[in-house]
Amino acid sequence: MDVPLAHLDRPFDYLVPAELAETAQPGTRVRVRFAGQLVDGWLLERAESSAHDGRLMFLERLVSPEPVLTPEVARLARAVADRYAGHLADVLRLAVPPRHARVEREPAPDATDDPASAGSTDTDAGSAGTTSAAGPVSAGTSSADAGSAGTSSADADLGGWRDYPAGPGFLRALANGRTPRAVWSALAGEDWAARIAEAVAATVHGGRGALVVVADARDLDRLDTAVTSTLGAGRHVALSAALGPAKRYRAFLAARRGTVPVVIGTRAAMFAPVHQLGLVAIWDDGDDLHAEPRAPYPHAREVLLTRAQLGATAVLVAGHTRTAEAQLLVETGWAKEVVADRATVRRRTPLVTPTGDDPQLARDPAAATARLPSLAWEAARGALRADTPVLVQVPRRGYLPSVACADCRAPARCPHCAGPLALRSAGAAPACRWCGRVAAAYACPHCAGRRLRAAVVGARRTAEELGRAFPDIPVRTSGRDEVLHRVPGGAGLVISTPGAEPVAEGGFGAVLLLDSWALLTRADLRAGEEALRRWLTAAALARPASAGGRVVVVADGGLVPVQALLRWDPAWFAARELAERRELGFPPAVRMASLTGVPEAVADLLAAARLPAEAEVLGPVPAEAEQERMLVRVPRSRAALLAEALHAAAGVRTARRASQPVRVQVDPLSLF
């Protein structure tokens, strides 16, 4: 039942009225009477009898005869709820979009319909439901073993996978119905969407379906174009929460009814019902957009890995970088890495140079403190002279998102709410980023100074400064409010925030990575990993060094993330990061749960929880408002017991009608 109470997180038996005997099938939405109220529910199973000794009530009505919840997705939702100490009802809300009655009544789509809007396919799409001649093999088959799978129709479609020694074998295994599991580190300049589309095509040619999850709409558009080019129109649907209720439900029904063999989408697609699912793939699994912000807070990568484990499905975890979680898959042998040899890596990568090493300091003493040292200026000028575009990555958006007193350097805070003051333009008065109040008459409470200086420079101010420095060069910005997708050839400056970098025709001549301190000094367990992810994503858009491509990172070359960028070796950094987390006892080396709430509520939940004997309770640490956070750490082998104990304790509290909630998050992205 769709009731958000932990102690009611179990199936209930109801009688099916005779008039609903044919239509009330497993997977349909129903309405039932519970505790005197009508509530929504899911029909999970039909049985001849019930083990319940008491009197059973009848289903009140059938909401829709459409069986939108498949048995495979129902099992997955239960497994995800158990892993994250959550409720099945919460997971089902994420798995199945809200019903749209008009869309359900629409006739079956024709091959002439627009697949992007109608979720339709051509009449050959049903071929994805055929059985592969090779037949399934065990889930332990690796990409290294895949090369022995023999030849197939996919041999002619290896594309860019030839640049990776294990790539052709991975595609052959997919085409022959095997279940390889791979962690792929994409090369610089790689058309990652085309490579994933080729893996999807190999899976479809083998008679199975595929599911691919990306982080945002920009990546989804790029993948949509690649899959359409590879498979043809009408063979897939794009599923995203941004589509709107009707389009999203139409695409969902196309997948559920088996009209299309392939689903691509953002994290909203991680539960998509794909017939005979043969491949699950995720691009850039380190992006925090893959983490669901609603209970029970599942991560798309973990959902797809759970799905592969339950269904003996092939896996592709891909990105320019590699997370500690992906490295754990490789080191435990659960997956095999698909990487290029070092000669190919060197041939494809741009020349990467830091600004804080000794030779640069000798030439430019201000290189350690300047926001844009001479080396970065020279790289930009050289690229512009060669009539190639320049990408400048700035971690912060806006104009001056943070200002300080020009006299005593104290951060400027709002006199009403103590929020940070910011400038939205050169002539604007300072305004609070929290409450929005304008502080036109601001005076520093420490020294009474009235002059302000920049503490943090945003993308728009950077664009303004570079526009003055290069007056004859067009300057474009790409960020949350306006995202560029492609940059035409020729000289030009693009100022971008992380994640909004456009693709340039032929690649960027130079990529400048500014304000590295803003990424590296974050109070976050994943600060180094996230910095490297953002740098590699931008640097991968540069031309190879042989074509004049340069990357300048304004940081000390001795820092570990900078060293990984210089070597272009994300696997080395991931292995080092995982080793350090093992030593310190942090995820993913261990399983950790975060409990956030008012102190009394958190203490009440911990008192009710029967934690495993190996559990360590850490904290408290301050959280937002008047709340605190406690951390519970256990070995990975005891993860299921921890989740079960926390779920049971939450059930005790809801049964007692505890007034103060506690947010339970298992393996949250942010611990502090």
Task: Give the topology, please.
Layout: E1 29-34, E2 37-42, E3 61-64, H1 71-83, H2 88-95, H3 101-105, H4 115-118, H5 143-146, H6 167-175, E4 181-185, H7 192-205, E5 209-213, H8 217-231, E6 236-239, H9 245-256, E7 262-265, E8 277-283, H10 300-311, E9 314-319, H11 324-331, E10 336-338, H12 342-348, E11 351-354, H13 358-363, H14 374-385, E12 389-393, E13 402-405, E14 421-422, E15 431-432, E16 452-456, H15 459-469, E17 475-478, E18 486-487, E19 492-496, E20 503-504, E21 510-513, H16 516-520, H17 527-539, E22 550-553, H18 560-567, H19 570-584, E23 590-597, H20 599-608, E24 616-622, E25 628-635, H21 639-655, E26 663-666
Parallel strand pairs: 4-9, 4-10, 5-7, 5-8, 6-7, 8-9, 11-22, 12-19, 12-21, 17-19, 18-20, 21-22
Antiparallel strand pairs: 1-2, 1-3, 13-16, 14-15, 23-25, 23-26, 24-25
Would you kindly provide a written description of the structure presented here, covering whatever features stand out?
Belongs to the helicase family. PriA subfamily. Keywords: ATP-binding, DNA replication, DNA-binding, Hydrolase, Metal-binding, Nucleotide-binding, Primosome, Zinc. This is Probable replication restart protein PriA. Residues 3-97 form the Primosomal protein N' 3' DNA-binding domain. Residues 99-158 are annotated as: Disordered. By secondary structure, the chain is an alpha/beta fold. The chain folds into four domains: 1-67, PriA, 3(prime) DNA-binding domain (GIY-YIG endonuclease), CATH 3.40.1440.60; 118-344, P-loop containing nucleotide triphosphate hydrolases (Rossmann fold, 3-Layer(aba) Sandwich); 350-580, no CATH class; 585-666, Alpha-Beta Plaits (2-Layer Sandwich), CATH 3.30.70. Helix content is 31%, strand content 18%. The chain is built from 21 helices and 26 strands. The chain has a seven-stranded parallel sheet, sandwiched between helices. α1 packs across α2. It starts with 28 loop residues before the first strand and ends in a 6-residue tail after the last strand. Mean pLDDT is 88; it is low at 111-156.
